[in-house]
Amino acid sequence: MCTFAGNIIRTFTKYEGLLGQILNLQILEKLINQVEDSRFEISSEAFETFRAIFTHKKESEKKIVADFILKNYDEFFRLYKSLINYDNYLSQRTCLKTLYEILDDPVNSEIMIRFISSKDNLRMIIDLLSNENKGIQFEAFMLLELLIRNISKATEPDIKTLILHNKLVLVKFIKGLEVESEQEYDYNKDVMLHYLDSLH
Q1: DSSP 3-state of 51
Q2: Across residues 84-113, what is the average pLDDT?
Q3: Which residue in 29, 61, 63, 58 sits closest to 46, CA to CA?
Q4: Taking the model in full, what pTM does it have?
């Protein structure tokens, strides 16, 4: 039954006229509750549906999603962070990867700027970097790389000040970090170190 319901909702996400009907906080909250269900088939179906709503879309559909997130920014990220904090490796890692995909899409530049301008979000990323699981560390690293790459766009000046204040510690940590996806990490590590080096 959960597979049938998931397939129906994911089909709706492919049509602009129906996508707007699915995008409401009540549906998202129910999906997130199902992601946190202890039964694997329900949890995985719910997360696949959640990802289908927010990623891999045509430009016009991305705009609908971006408008929804901006309109409901605080509540959307309150719900999203409950997923990030959910104590399940697969859900947590996929959630962080999906967040990176959302924030790194040019259509969502306004959402990205608002996200990286928050000290709470920076603190969350740093905390996740200290996670004992290397997969979670890698996804947190990617979010930090995105933040540092775009730090000049942050509307909160304290963000840059915090990064500058901890620059040497971050450089040492990044150089010593061992992650699963080493080839991708090496490339992004060089990018991050370049941006850190240019910060003054």
Answers
A1: helix
A2: 90
A3: 29
A4: 0.86
